[in-house]
Every structure is written in structure tokens, then in C-alpha cells.
Description:
The structure is a homodimer. Chain A is an all-alpha fold. Chain A folds into two domains: 58 residues, Multidrug-efflux Transporter Regulator, Chain: A, Domain 2 (Orthogonal Bundle); 65 residues, Multidrug-efflux Transporter Regulator, Chain: A, Domain 2 (Orthogonal Bundle), CATH 1.10.1660.10. The first copy, chain A, contains six helices and two strands. A two-stranded antiparallel ribbon of chain A has the order 1-2. The radius of gyration of chain A is 24 Å and the shape is elongated. At the A-B interface, helix 3, helix 4, helix 5 and helix 6 of A face helix 3, helix 4, helix 5 and helix 6 of B. Bound molecules: zinc ion (ZN) (4 copies). One zinc ion (ZN) binds next to helix 6 of chain A. Chain A binds a DNA duplex through helix 2.
Amino acid sequence: MLKIGELASKTGLTAHTIRYYEKNGLINASQRSEVGYRCYNESDVRQAEFVRTARRIGFSIADVAALLSIRVDKTNHTCQDVTEITQRKLKDVSEKITELRSMQKTLQILLNSCSGGPENAYHCSIMEALDASNSQAVRGRA
Amino acid sequence: MLKIGELASKTGLTAHTIRYYEKNGLINASQRSEVGYRCYNESDVRQAEFVRTARRIGFSIADVAALLSIRVDKTNHTCQDVTEITQRKLKDVSEKITELRSMQKTLQILLNSCSGGPENAYHCSIMEALDASNSQAVRGRA
DNA sequence: GTTGACCTTAGAGTTTACTCTAAGCTTATA
DNA sequence: TATAAGCTTAGAGTAAACTCTAAGGTCAAC
Ligand SMILES: [Zn+2]
Ligand SMILES: [Zn+2]
Ligand SMILES: [Zn+2]
Ligand SMILES: [Zn+2]
């Protein structure tokens, strides 16, 4: 039976975070000690590790809660239930990457256009591009 | 002279957002009408468009504030000042992309391992991977 | 002359995921 | 037997960027 600090060092979460996850239904201490300390058994620890793994992958707390509800009742859930959550997350991540790549490209174009030197910014092409609301560079892929 | 709603439709920002930006020093109305309405002149509009463009590229509000302070005093700032902000942002964006690509890869591996079919999740390989805290798939690029 | 769209302010609420604080027990160590 | 480290709770604070509300004044149109 681990105390919260022990679970924390075992999982790499902080005790604060574990209590926060508990409030959100992700981690649970099956027992309390006589004085009220949280006590985690092996099954609790495995669940905490599941949570940490899922969070590391990028699942939100709500996603993890959904995955846990499948986990505790696998026979009444399908592989489809699991992949739906995973697909949705993959879609989010992919969309975010697309957005960021567009930003990345624009920023790179801006940087390529400017010397970055010590001359004053009066004719800086980055500033000019930001000022031109109809600039090619800042409207994404042309 | 535009009123806030006119500036909003011209820029694609909402009136709420424009007031919020004003509070943060990004957009300013040079005048008020007799009854206190914000009035934006051409220069104000150009600044608002600069802000909108910079925000669209992904610069934070603090970044935009820094860019604006260069913009209003170009002769006392250098191209280096401008590129520093841009480089920092590019670095942030690139790091975020790296993170997300790692998530994307993991999620794809998970999805490839599961049929996604209507069978129950008892032997679901996604659930198994999440449960195995030492799983290959969930520890990023091996 | 009243409806409806638009404007004003200060300030609260939203989202996500923590992160920290205060006040007070408990437990291990020197 | 004192410290120090660790545990408890409720609740507040943080970050970013909005988003909305309430209560009220203004303006154009029918
Ligand atoms: Zn120059
Ligand atoms: Zn330059
Ligand atoms: Zn199966
Ligand atoms: Zn499956």
C-alpha cells in the first residue's frame, strides 16, 4: 500500500496532481489509513499508471475518464468505442499540426525576408509584411 | 471614422475582442464621439489590421505588443529586434509541432493495432498498450 | 414613439490542467 | 523532544485569450 507521495514518485505525477485527478475521477485510493492518509493498492497503482500513460500520449482528462470507464467494464464496451476516442484525438492532433505548420511556414518566409541585422527597422520587410494586410506571406499557402 | 462594429466587420474581430485588445494596448481609438463611442481613423484601422495579421500568424498578444512598440518607433529599433521575436515564435511553433508529431505517431500506432470493430474490448490492443506502462508504442520513438 | 440594433462600463465567466496556499494533523529522525 | 517532512481539507490562483453579462445610453427606421 503506497501513500500519495510514494505513488507520486512512482508515477512521476505530483501529489497535488494526483489529488486533482482524484477530484476528476481518474485516480482513486481504495483505502484510507487510520489517520486518513490515502492508501493505494496494486490495482490503484496500475490505474494511475494507465492515466499517466494516456495523459502523456496527449489524451485530455475527459478522454482519460472515458477510457477508464471502458477499462473497468471491458466486456460491455467494444474496440470501436476505444478507436472512436483515439481517432478523434488523432484528428485533433493532425488539425493542430496543420495549423502550426502553416504558422511555421509563414514565420520562415518572414525570417528569410529580413537580414536580422543591426540596421534600423524602418524598411524591415517583416514589419512591411505585417502591415500589408493583403500580403502573400501572411495569407498562408498561396 | 469607423465605429467599433464597423471596425469589427472590417477586421473580422468582434467588438468584444477589440475592446479586449484595447485593454491590452493593441488597438486604440484616437477619438471618441460626443456620446463616447470609439472612433477609429485610418491609422487606427491600419494598426488593427496589423494586429489581426500578427495574431493570425500566431504571435501572442505580448508578441504583438512588442511588435507594435517597434512599429511606432521603427527608427529606434533594428531588424534584429524584429527577427528575435519572430525566431522565438518559430522555435515555439517548431517545438510544439515536434510534440504533436510524436503524439500523432503514437496514436496512429495504436489505431493500427486495433480492428475498431464491434467485438468487446476485453482484448483490445489499445487498452493493453495503455495498460502496459512500459509499452513500446507509448514511449515515443523507440 | 417605440422597436431594435449598436454603443458604453465594470466585472464575471470560460477553458484546460494544473499549482499553490493556509491551517493543522502525523510520522520519522536526531 | 524538537524539527522536518509528509499528510489532510477547502478553496484560491495561474496561464492565455477571449466571451459574455448586466444595466443602461444612443440612433435609425417604421
Ligand atoms: Zn532596412
Ligand atoms: Zn527586417
Ligand atoms: Zn478482441
Ligand atoms: Zn481494440
